[in-house]
Design goal:
- By secondary structure, the protein is mainly β.
- The chain contains 10 helices and 64 strands.
- It has a 33-stranded mixed β-sheet. Strands 43-45-47-49-51-53 form a 6-stranded parallel β-sheet, with no helix packed on it. Strands 33-35-37-39-41 form a 5-stranded parallel β-sheet, with no helix packed on it.
Length: 1000
């Protein structure tokens, strides 16, 4: 918008330069000179003109030729204007400028035109030829435009030049030579060198001779330079665009003193910084357009911003501005666009605007304001009433802040409003019915707030122009009659988690232009009506997941080309439907579909990116044609009854990030072709009947973060290749197989590993001490990182894993990133307890049970201060139980049974929460909670500990209350609670998963 606002200014300057050349042939001379005529004919002969643009170039009166202007007094040619008026802006290089293209060569005969002042060859196609050196000899040339005409290189001379436009001319090989040439152009008024591949410092033009420069455009180059302070010395500047130039350093204060500056754009210089107080220290009274978007401006927005009384456009998008919005902005009577989105604003919107009386043309604040964008900040507080007085406001965007309170009903006064964006806040109350009276409203988005209440037909009564409706992730109940006909024809309906049911909304039948439909988690049940498939052919996104929809889907499925289709978590049945056209996402998981996966699936969806049919009743084999779907990023066929072997053709899906074939009936070996999936991040083949060894080609899967091969029939040694190159591997599960041999010491190279599960195999030897070098387990994991893979248009594969903890299996999803676990149970391991394990201070689960491990439990096991589950049962451990175990305040489960431990149990502190079963089967142990007394005990402490039910009830209630607060504040409060009661850690992970599922 800023560039458009100065269009009039630019045209005025251009007309001043070119007024003498506006007519192509209005000359009183019947013939031009023979010298000029010969020069033009030779110039024409060098050009390629496939569309005969120069058809008029014949005869002797060249002043009448197309694109030629002559001096009225002398008849000399003064202008050649052959710029292509039919170019296609920003298109590619093949046929990039539409038609009327000229190409070929520029012949030196042009230098015979001694009076030539104007030359425009812009937007033609000269195929990367160098700019001819002879152009520098045109001593009288004042206007030169070679923009986007396919030229390269630089030129010298042209001392009379006033206007130079060379946008998109490749000057990447020129170096800094162009800077020196500028010093020799004292008459230059306009310089356009946008997208020229310029590099290097631009601070060295000193002293500045550009005393007439009014327009400077160096945008979209890569100088990587300090900000050029010399610009503030050019008092004639009116328009400056240095956006996207990789500038750094501080913005000079002197810009505020330039008397004529109307437009200043420094957008996209991510290393450029200044404090806001310094930035607005100057007067800046004349400036109309200020664009500092995408920089690193910091500090609070000072009240002195109101000194820029001529300001019409103010853009500080994507900076680091803090604080609130000063109430003095009301003095900006001409402000039209105000954009502070994407900053760190932490204050609130002012309750009252000061200085509104200065705008004498209107009684309302900010009478000219059309657009206010303050999204993606941390603004808090309530929406002030003065917003409803911005009578000319067209767009109000306050999305993704921390705003609270109700939406003011007075916003219904903004009769010009077309966009109301309030998603991602903490707004509460109901949706005002007054919003239904905004006749121009095309976008209404209040998604992801805490709004409640009933939405009726009144809320939409006058919204005839509504195109985007976002009500998702609130607690709305839509209550309209079955015969309701909405006044709008929307393109996007996002009503996720609103109560629309129980039956499928019949009013949707009237929406013939909808292309984006999200009715997920909307309490809809029953069959999908037949009329829905009459409008579905226009849907590029269809999400009706998490409902209770029943029946069969039509086969083939009628949907728009390249659509995203999500029917997961319903009660749909029948065969897998295939679409009529190509689509990019298909999620049918967690339904009752049955039968085989269609063998011709690749023919129907060759460009599919996301495929999930998990959790159904599918049978048969994996189609070999699935390898023809080479754009697939996610394949999830898990939790079905699919049999046979893994199709080797899957190795052709080289973009694959997720392959989940778990919980099926697959057999055979892993094909070596899976090693071709170098982008693979998550591989689940667990809970099948697979056999053989791991193929050596697995060493190519260096992008893996999860490798779960548990509960199969794999055999042989664990290959040491797993310890090489897998720098991102978080999860390694090989449990419940037939692996033998020793644990490879190279596994310690897995620096990101958080879960190591080798349980239930035939492993021998001792536990290598190098396991204590696992870096990711050596520090606390206290940040929830959602492990989402193959994310595509808001749909993703959520990582999940079953972990044996506290004597039971537990599936982790949302909180999986917090878990660190080592499970080596159920093997034939021997040797002493590895003391190196005590270095893993972030370890949450340690299970070494059912082995032959001897030696003593080290006293410094208390270094594992995050430990929540410890199982060392059924080993040959001897000696006493370290008293330091009582200091492990997070420990919710301990099993030391069936060993050779002896001595008195340190039954104090946290250890008093465990019963006798944790210590049974150790003949030498005595003391509480065992019934066996120690010889030095004088008092009867036998019997089990009786816990107070009332205390449990109080602690559990306090625990769940603290979790509600702690989920936002971090993990500190839950950690404190864990120290009180052992069941708390179990409940925490389950509770957080439920909460996040409910919010998502």
């Amino acid at each position: 918008m800023g560039r458009l606002s100065v269009l009039g200014l630019m045209l005025t300057m251009l007309c001043a330069i070119t007024s003498d050349y506006a007519s192509y042939g209005a000359s009183r001379f019947s013939n031009c000179s023979e010298n000029d005529l010969d020069a033009l004919i030779d110039f024409k002969n060098g050009l390629e003109d496939p569309e005969n643009r120069l058809a008029s170039w014949k005869g002797s009166n060249c002043c009448q030729w197309h694109g030629i202007s002559c001096d009225d007094d002398t008849g000399a040619i003064v202008a050649i204007n052959l710029g292509n008026p039919y170019h296609v802006v920003n298109s590619d290089s093949s046929g990039r400028y539409g038609f009327w293209n000229l190409s070929g060569e520029l012949r030196p005969s042009l230098i015979k035109l001694k009076s030539l002042e104007y030359l425009d060859l812009s937007f033609n196609t000269f195929n990367d030829i160098p700019i001819p050196e002879f152009l520098g000899s045109l001593e009288n040339l004042q206007y030169l435009n070679l923009s986007e005409a396919g030229f390269t290189d630089w030129l010298t001379g042209l001392v009379s030049l006033k206007h130079l436009a060379m946008n998109r001319v490749d000057l990447s090989l020129v170096g800094s030579e162009w800077l020196g040439i500028l010093k020799n152009l004292p008459n230059l008024t306009e310089l356009h060198l946008s997208v020229c591949g310029l590099t290097g410092s631009i601070t060295s033009i000193t002293p500045v001779n550009l005393t007439s420069l009014a327009v400077l455009d160096l945008s979209l180059n890569h100088f990587n330079s300090l900000f050029p302070n010399w610009l503030v010395n050019i008092s004639t500047l009116v328009y400056v665009d240095l956006s996207d130039c990789d500038l750094y350093g501080r913005i000079p204060i002197g810009f505020g003193e330039l008397p004529n500056l109307h437009y200043l754009s420094l957008a996209g210089n991510n290393n450029l910084s200044a404090s806001c107080s310094q930035l607005f220290r100057g007067s800046w009274k004349k400036i109309q357009i200020l664009n500092f978007a995408s920089n690193k401006l910091h500090g609070k927005l000072p009240s002195s911003v109101a000194n820029m009384t001529s300001l019409t456009n103010f853009d500080l998008f994507d900076n680091k501005v803090e604080g609130g919005i000063p109430s003095s902005i009301a003095r900006l009577c001409y402000l039209k666009e105000f954009d502070l989105s994407g900053n760190n604003l932490t204050g609130s919107l002012p309750e009252i605007l000061q200085g509104t009386d200065l705008c004498v043309s209107s009684n309302s604040p900010l009478p000219s304001l059309i657009s206010m964008r303050l999204g993606n900040n941390h603004l808090k507080g309530k929406l002030p009433e003065w917003l409803s007085q911005l009578e000319n406001l067209v767009e109000l965007t306050l999305s993704y802040n921390l705003l609270q309170g109700p939406i003011p009903a007075s916003l219904g006064n903004l009769k010009n409003l077309t966009k109301l964006n309030l998603p991602g806040n903490q707004l509460n109350g109901t949706l005002p019915e007054t919003l239904g009276s905004l006749p121009e409203l095309s976008v209404l988005d209040v998604s992801s707030n805490s709004l409640t209440g009933i939405i009726s037909e009144i809320h939409f009564s006058r919204l005839s122009k509504l195109k985007f409706l976002g009500l998702s992730s609130n607690s709305f109940i839509l209550n309209v009659s079955s015969s309701w006909i909405p006044p709008f024809q929307v393109q996007s309906l996002n009503m996720r988690s609103c109560q629309l049911g129980p039956s499928f909304p019949s009013w949707l039948k009237t929406q013939q232009g909808v292309s984006f439909l999200d009715f997920s988690n909307a309490s809809i049940s029953g069959p999908i009506p037949n009329w829905f498939w009459d409008i579905s052919s226009k849907l590029s996104l269809l999400n009706v997941s998490l409902n209770q929809l029943q029946g069969q889907l039509p086969n083939p499925l009628n949907i728009a080309p390249f659509a995203d289709v999500d029917f997961r978590s319903n009660l749909l049945e029948g065969p897998i439907p295939l679409p009529i056209v190509e689509i990019e996402l298909l999620d049918l998981s967690n339904n009752h579909f049955s039968g085989p996966i269609p063998q011709n699936i690749s023919g129907s969806m060759p460009n599919l990116i996301f495929l999930s049919v998990s959790g159904n009743r599918l049978t048969g084999k994996i189609p070999g044609s699935i390898g023809e779907m080479q754009l697939l990023q996610v394949i999830d066929l898990s939790r079905n009854s699919i049999s046979g072997s893994i199709s080797s053709s899957i190795g052709n899906c080289t973009f694959l990030k997720v392959l989940d074939l778990s919980y099926s009936s697959l057999s055979g070996v892993i094909p070596a072709s899976l090693g071709q999936l170098t982008r693979l991040q998550s591989l689940h083949l667990n809970n099948n009947k697979l056999t053989g060894n791991l193929p050596s080609s697995f060493q190519n899967l260096t992008s893996l973060e999860t490798l779960d091969l548990g509960n199969n029939r794999f055999s042989g040694n664990i290959p040491s290749l797993l310890g090489n190159g897998f720098v991102g591997l978080r999860i390694l599960s090989l449990r419940s197989n037939a692996f033998s041999g020793e644990i490879p010491s190279k596994l310690s190279n897995l620096s990101s590993l958080q879960v190591l599960d080798l349980a239930e195999n035939n492993l021998t030897g001792s536990i290598p001490g190098s396991v204590g070098d696992l870096k990711a387990m050596a520090h606390v994991q206290n940040i929830v990182k959602y492990l989402l893979f193959g994310r595509y248009r808001g749909i993703y594969y959520e990582e999940n894993l079953v972990i044996n903890t506290k004597g039971q299996q537990q599936r982790y999803t949302k909180t999986l990133s917090l878990v660190t676990s080592i499970d080596l149970s159920g093997n034939n391991l021997h040797g002493d307890f590895p003391t190196q394990l005590t270095k893993l201070v972030g370890l949450v689960v340690l299970n070494l049970s059912r082995n032959h491990i001897g030696g003593q439990i080290p006293e410094n096991i208390s270094g594992l201060r995050q430990l929540a589950s410890l199982d060392l049962s059924s080993n040959n451990l001897s000696g006493g139980i370290p008293s330091s175990l009582s200091s492990l305040s997070f420990l919710g489960y301990i099993n030391l049974s069936r060993n050779q431990l002896s001595g008195k149990i340190p039954f104090e502190g946290h250890m008093t929460t465990f019963d006798a079963s944790s210590f049974a089967g150790n003949p030498g142990l005595c003391g509480d909670p065992l019934p066996v007394k120690c010889q030095d005990d004088e008092s009867d402490k036998g019997g089990n500990v009786v816990e107070d039910d009332n205390e449990d009830e109080f602690i559990d209630k306090w625990f769940y209350f603290s979790l509600g607060l702690g989920f936002a504040a971090g993990i500190i409060v839950p950690m404190f609670i864990f120290s009180i009661k052992k069941p708390c850690s179990d409940a925490y992970f389950k509770f957080v998963d439920k909460i996040v599922d409910r919010l998502s």
